[in-house]
């Protein structure tokens, strides 16, 4: 009986230690978000400079995004429905197939910011 009690106590101790370790670990969460531009011209610009993408406070409600030399302010909005994302895959028969990649329930609507010199 004492042996079972000791085993139970040891198991409880291990579980509590594991809980502490789990809560101390940093939790990272990835999500897909559709980016929508308020001006179609900006979407074409984004394609050219997609490798020059910087963000400030992307997890905040109104992040600032820099693409190339343009600045945008974003606003997260809930989608009506769900956006599905697919990747193109080339098959052996040279036809294009699409494979499910993920889904999104939010979108980031970007509006271009214009910086003006301060007048004294």
Automatic annotation (TrEMBL):
It holds the Pfam family TFIIIC_sub6. InterPro entries: GTF3C6-like (IPR042771), TFIIIC_triple_barrel (IPR019481). GO terms for cellular component: transcription factor TFIIIC complex. Residues 1-22 are annotated as: Disordered. It comes from the Eukaryota. Residues 28-115 form the Transcription factor TFIIIC triple barrel domain. Residues 10-19 have a biased composition (Basic and acidic residues). GO terms for biological process: transcription by RNA polymerase III. This is General transcription factor 3C polypeptide 6 isoform X2. It comes from Brachionus plicatilis.
């Amino acid at each position: 009986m004492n042996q079972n009690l000791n085993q139970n106590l040891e198991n409880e101790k291990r579980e509590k230690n594991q809980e502490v370790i789990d809560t101390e670990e940093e939790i990272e969460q990835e999500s897909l978000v559709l980016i929508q531009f308020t001006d179609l011209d900006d979407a074409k610009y984004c394609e050219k400079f997609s490798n020059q993408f910087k963000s400030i406070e992307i997890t905040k409600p109104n992040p600032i995004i820099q693409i190339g030399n343009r600045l945008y302010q974003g606003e997260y909005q809930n989608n009506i429905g769900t956006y599905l994302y697919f990747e193109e895959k080339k098959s052996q028969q040279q036809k294009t197939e699409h494979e499910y990649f993920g889904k999104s329930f939010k979108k980031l609507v970007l509006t271009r910011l214009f910086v003006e010199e301060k007048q004294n």
